[in-house]
Amino acid sequence: MSLPVVSRLFRSALRTQLVPVANVSAKPAEHSVTAGEQAIAMTVLFAAILGPSSWILAHLEDYKKKQ
């Protein structure tokens, strides 16, 4: 395959969108998210991401030991 064929293939792949990624709309949101809901969501997100990694870092020496 020559370079122009590959570049045309990539261009056509970028132009076609098989599955819509997100519904983007210019209208305002139907439901406004309160500060309490945002705080709960951020707490859950941080716990889900930082919880397992902090557990591993706290028990790193245990994992290094051979049993």
TrEMBL record:
Membrane topology type: Single-pass membrane protein
Domain of life, source organism: Eukaryota
Localization of this protein: Mitochondrion inner membrane
GO cellular component, one term: respiratory chain complex IV
One Pfam family per UniProt: COX8
GO BP field: mitochondrial electron transport, cytochrome c to oxygen
Family designation: Belongs to the cytochrome c oxidase VIII family.
Protein name per the record: Cytochrome c oxidase subunit 8B, mitochondrial
Native species: Lates calcarifer
